[in-house]
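User: Design a sequence. Structure:
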């Protein structure tokens, strides 16, 4: 009885400490927001990675003195720093674009609740809106139509995956829309095999899934015998079908987080071909946004070159001339013009910068067609490097 009472006391103390930690995290977040406010009228980058590195090294040393593992301390504070950076960026963007600040937004995404696009939408707007009006769509084309027609404010579109590569259908649709890219998000993708009832892998003979997860989990699926894949329009639809079936021989590929919305349980976790599996999403809207100078920005454009040797190389030389880094180059066929290609390019640059404006002026002279699809804040926050010596025990 005494041991049971002691355990209850210990658990109570842990719960209280967890609550205290949450209060401290909230206080720290509030202070970092004040940092953003102090930078609002100064052209100073949100990040000071030299200071971040010095802070991490100091915290690692303090942690060691208290018996804490260096990697444990590093992981915790890198997450805290990332949260701080993203919150500061969101605040500065709201100041830069006051006309679009609103507590409620409507978002179109592929599928229904629980889909990866649904989860990406909630993650992106968790820092920007108090309420999300959901609008699930059956296709990427429908998402663009809902935004273009004014039925919703934004559309969330997956554009590429680290395992399966570019989502060509989205690139092709971007050729023919007047919408602007106004944001991006990199979402970790942890594919699981989910079931509605307690079962085992040997009993599974039918798997519901969207085509993209099937491609990204091909190694796992190829090892399974006698399994039939039932393709669905979205991961959400696949999870809904599995949930309704309540059969021991039926499973679905989806996220554990999304599966919980349908009372599904993870039978097998982490079944993707690559352990580090991420999808990049873009957010589109009817009007472009301006990106605060303090924030790292990306500019996405499409262009078509002349059909002459070295025409694309000439364009890339211009980027080098203005010291603009290219993070993505994708070619897609131009509809109605056989053997001609349209090039999609992501650049690490703010559209308003003098370098980017001069670069665009030169590219315009070299190309048959050029169009800026959008300039937006980048949310791919790279962790601050910690010297190896600091991590040594």
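Assistant: Done.
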């Amino acid at each position: 009885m005494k041991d049971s009472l002691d355990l209850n006391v210990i658990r109570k103390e842990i719960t209280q400490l967890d609550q205290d930690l949450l209060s401290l995290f909230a206080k720290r977040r509030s202070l970092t927001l004040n940092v953003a406010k102090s930078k609002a009228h100064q052209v100073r980058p949100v990040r000071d990675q030299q200071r971040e590195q010095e802070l991490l090294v100091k915290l690692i040393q303090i942690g060691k003195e208290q018996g804490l593992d260096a990697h444990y301390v590093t992981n915790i504070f890198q997450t805290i720093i990332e949260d701080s950076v993203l919150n500061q960026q969101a605040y500065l963007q709201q100041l830069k674009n006051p006309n679009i600040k609103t507590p409620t937004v409507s978002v179109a995404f592929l599928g229904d609740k629980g889909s990866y696009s649904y989860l990406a939408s909630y993650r992106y707007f968790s820092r920007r809106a108090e309420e999300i009006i959901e609008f699930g769509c059956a296709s990427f084309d429908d998402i663009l139509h809902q935004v273009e027609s004014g039925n919703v404010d934004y559309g969330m579109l997956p554009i590429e995956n680290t395992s399966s590569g570019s989502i060509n259908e989205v690139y092709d649709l971007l050729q023919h829309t007047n919408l602007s890219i106004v944001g991006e998000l990199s979402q970790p993708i942890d594919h699981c095999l989910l079931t509605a009832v307690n079962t085992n892998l040997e009993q599974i003979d039918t798997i519901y899934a969207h085509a993209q997860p099937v491609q990204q989990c091909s190694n796992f699926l190829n090892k399974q015998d006698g399994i039939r894949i039932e393709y669905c329009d979205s991961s959400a639809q696949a999870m809904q079908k599995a949930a309704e079936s309540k059969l021991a021989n039926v499973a679905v590929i989806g996220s554990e987080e999304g599966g919980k919305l349908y009372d599904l349980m993870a039978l097998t976790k982490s079944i993707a071909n690559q352990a580090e599996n991420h999808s990049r999403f873009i957010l589109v809207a009817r009007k472009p946004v301006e990106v605060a100078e303090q924030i790292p920005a990306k500019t996405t454009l499409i262009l078509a070159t002349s059909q002459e040797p070295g025409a694309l190389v000439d364009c890339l030389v211009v980027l080098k001339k203005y010291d603009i880094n290219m993070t993505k180059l994708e070619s897609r066929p131009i509809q109605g013009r056989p053997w001609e290609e349209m090039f999609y390019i992501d650049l690490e640059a703010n559209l308003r910068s003098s370098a980017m404006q001069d670069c665009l002026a030169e590219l315009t002279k070299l190309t048959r067609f050029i169009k800026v699809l959008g300039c937006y804040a980048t949310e791919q926050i790279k962790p601050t490097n910690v010297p190896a010596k600091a991590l040594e025990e």
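The mean pLDDT is 89. Residues 2-39 form the longest helix (38 residues).
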